[in-house]
Write a structure and sequence with these properties.
By secondary structure, the chain is α/β, with parallel strands linked by helices. The protein folds into 2 domains: 2-106 and 157-196 and 386-407, Rossmann fold (3-Layer(aba) Sandwich); 205-385, Rossmann fold. The protein is built from 20 helices and 13 strands. The strands form 2 sheets. The protein has a 7-stranded parallel sheet, sandwiched between helices. Strands 10-9-8-11-12-13 form a 6-stranded parallel sheet, sandwiched between helices.
Length: 408
């Protein structure tokens, strides 16, 4: 039996959504070989009430009781940066090695979530580091001495402890694989694509519950409104300010028929007002999974910028491509690895706003170009991210890891 450890839905993290889809694909593949997957997280009551595909178990007994770990031949650990979700995963990895999935290759925030003492301990374990100088810099180079707001997290990726306990590493991009190898890891590093979430392509208004989204459907039907989607959690790396400024500079004719649909948090309001685009923005707040899917299907264009990168990929991007939506992305990190005909790439430098404005204008005015991007994106996801294909790659990794364990 294999233990799979990850934040799980309904926790609001892309890794939970990733795991939901991967678990389903892996269970099917493992069952064909007579193996089983046991699912673990911290605080699983909400997860078990949320879905019926599996019964999740509590991670804490695995951490503190060796006997609870003995039935499992292998462990799969999912790591991201949220300390609330991933500290228990790190605590279990300290007790038992396994296959590590790195959704980020900079784990600064995971360690910083343990406070300055946790950062100090991580610095002591990191080779070629000056701990005293580094702790002084981290403690002072941030607003109000809040180490979670440190300005240069990439300087301290804090990968050493995780890599030291990993039987093998799984990443989702070429960039992340290179970073892991550069960090000194000498074991197997596997690049496995994110899994296709198989999004709805067309809107089914009867399935929508959110009143704001319902009104936008009506507006699109009656007025031909062009809808741009902004999905996912907020953060400076998502370049939201550049998006707002670019929209504010569109020609009046384009502004008269465009709406920016923001799904999720409402942290943008001050910037939206400052850039003068209040009338262009529709914010639905958090929505159900069904409304999320329908909202993406409603969009004519997705903007999904990211700079700088922590080595992460983007579930939102795979969802957009699966839903056959054209998208504008930053030509940086994992996004730069996507085929050029599947997305519209812009630079992440001082030309960002100008290029973004030009890209939006072209998408709104050149329907054949927009459709060609969307269709190529759909083909790309089907070719590289199919659940069956991803599950088979995982089966190969599990077999290799088992052979490694048996050879010790």
């Amino acid at each position: 039996m294999i233990a799979y450890i990850s934040p799980l839905l309904p926790k609001k993290t892309g890794i939970a959504l990733y795991s939901q889809h991967l678990i389903n694909a892996l269970q099917t593949a493992l069952n064909l070989g007579g193996e089983e997957l046991a699912i673990f997280d911290d605080g699983v009551d909400d997860c078990n009430a949320y879905q019926t595909d599996y019964i999740a178990q509590e991670i804490l007994p695995l951490i503190f009781e060796e006997a609870r770990r003995e039935p499992f031949s292998q462990f799969i650990y999912n790591f991201g940066n949220n300390p609330h979700y991933h500290l228990p995963v790190l605590q279990l990895l300290r007790q038992h090695p396994g296959i590590v999935v790195l959704h980020d290759t900079v784990l600064y925030y995971l360690i910083a979530g343990q406070g300055l003492g946790g950062v100090w301990q991580a610095l002591l374990k990191t080779p070629n580091t000056q701990p005293i100088d580094s702790i002084h810099e981290i403690g002072n180079d941030n607003p109000e001495h809040d180490i979670l707001r440190y300005s240069a997290p990439a300087k301290h990726p804090f990968l050493h402890e995780v890599l030291a306990r990993a039987d093998s590493i799984v990443v989702h991009s070429k960039m992340a694989k290179e970073q892991v190898i550069k960090a000194g890891y000498t074991g197997s590093v596997h690049q496995v694509p994110l899994i296709d979430y198989q999004q709805a392509v067309n809107v089914d208004a009867a399935l929508i519950e959110n009143s704001t989204v319902i009104e936008l459907v009506k507006q699109k039907e009656s007025q031909g409104t062009f809808i741009i989607g902004l999905f996912g959690f907020s953060g400076e790396t998502k370049r939201s300010h550049s998006i707002f400024v670019a929209l504010s500079g569109l020609a009046d004719e384009l502004k008269s028929r465009v709406k920016l649909l923001i799904i999720g948090n409402d942290h943008y309001q001050a910037d939206i007002r400052a850039t003068g685009i209040t009338k262009l923005v529709v914010n639905s707040g958090y929505v159900s999974d069904a409304d999320y899917d329908q909202s993406m299907a409603l969009c004519d264009l997705i903007i999904n910028l990211r700079y700088p990168s922590m080595g992460e990929t983007s579930a939102v991007q795979i969802q957009a491509m699966s839903a056959e939506k054209p998208s504008i992305v930053s030509n940086y990190g994992w996004f730069s690895e996507l085929d050029d005909d599947t997305v519209h790439k812009i630079t992440a430098d001082e030309q960002e706003i100008e290029e973004l404005q030009q890209a939006i204008t072209r998408m709104m005015c050149d329907e054949p170009y927009r459709l060609s991007i969307a269709q190529a994106a759909k083909r790309y996801v089907k070719k590289h991210h199919s659940p069956v294909q991803v599950a088979q790659q995982w089966m190969d990794i599990i077999t290799e890891s088992r052979d490694l364990i048996e050879s010790r």
